[in-house]
Amino acid sequence: MNDKLNYFMCGFLLSGVAMGCGSDSDGSHESREIAASDLQRSLEIEEGQWIKSRIVYEDGSHDEITLRAQEKEGEYRWFDVHQVSSAYGNLDLRILGTPGTVEDPVGQIAEIEADVDTGDAFTDEFLRDYLTRNAATQIMSLMARQSFSAMEREEAPIVVPAGTFFGCYKRDESLVQDNGERAFLTTVWRHPAVPFSGVVLATDAEQSYRQELVDFGTE
Questions:
Q1: Distances (CA, A) of 147 to 77, 168, 203
Q2: 3-class DSSP state of 1
Q3: CA–CA gap between residue 17 and residue 82 (Å, rounded)
Q4: Which regions of the chain does DSSP assign to beta strands (E)?
Q5: Crossing angle of helices 3-10 and 128-142, rounded to 10°
Q6: What is the pLDDT of residue 194?
Q7: Alpha-carbon distance 9 to 172, whole Å?
Q8: 3-class SS of residue 195
Q9: Per-residue b/e over 139-158, b at no fewer than 16 CB within 10 Å?
Q10: What is the pLDDT of residue 12?
Q11: Pairing status of strand 163-165 against strand 33-34
Q12: What angle do CA 49, 33, 191 make, to 5 degrees?
C-alpha cells in the first residue's frame, strides 16, 4: 500500500463534500476565531456533531472527508463517513460502534454498511471488505478522545479554512501501515472545541501532505 493510499485509508480523519453535514459550500471560515480552552480532554461525542477535512498532497491531488455522529443504538452509536479521493474514488461508510478512548484507543465495531467506488472493478469487488473494514477500524481509532495534558501548547494561532484557532495542542504522532513495517511521523495540532479527536491541522516533516479542517459544528 503506497503512502498516499495509507493516508487516505487512515482518513486521518478526519475529517468534504457534506453528507447532510452543515453547508456544502467550500467557502473559507478563516475570519471565524476559536478561543483557547482549558479543557484537558476532547469533547464527549454527541449526536449531530460533524467535521469536514481536506487532505492535500504535494502532487496537487486531494481527499475530502466528512464525518458525522448519528443516533445511538444500544451501547453503540452510528457514524456516517463520506470520503472522496481524486486518486482513489469514493468511499461511503455507515459504522455502528464505539470510538476509542484515551485508555483504549482501538474502539469497537459492531456493524459496517459500505458503498465503495474506486473506479476499478476488481478492487471494488474483491477488496471491498478489506477496504471498508480497514477504513472503519482506522476511523474508530482516530476518533479516540484525546487527553491534552501531555501535549505542547502552541503559542501561535493556527489558521485553516475552518477558522483561526488559538491555544491548539501540538504533538508528533505516527501512522503505521497495516504490515507494521513503516511509520509516518506527522505533527498534529488539536483544539478542544473540535468534535471527535480535535484535529485542526496535520502535516509531515517532508510536507508531502497537509490535512486541514474545513468546517465543523453540531446540528
A1: 22, 13, 20
A2: coil
A3: 7
A4: 33-34, 49-57, 62-73, 76-85, 89-98, 108-117, 152-153, 158-160, 163-165, 169-176, 183-190, 199-204, 209-218
A5: 60
A6: 95
A7: 20
A8: coil
A9: bbbbbbbbebeebeebeeeb
A10: 39
A11: parallel
A12: 50
Q: What is the pTM of this model?
A: 0.81
Backbone angles phi, psi at 28, to 5 degrees: -80, 145
Residue 170 cell numbers, joined: 501540538
Cell of 199: 484535529
Question: Among candidates 142, 203, 134, 194, which has minimal Cα distance to 168?
Answer: 194
Task: Look at residue 61 in the predicted model and tell me its pLDDT.
Answer: 87
More confident position, 154 or 183: 154
Summary count for the chain: helices (H), strands (E)? 3, 13
Nearest to 152 by CA among 128, 173, 138, 125: 173
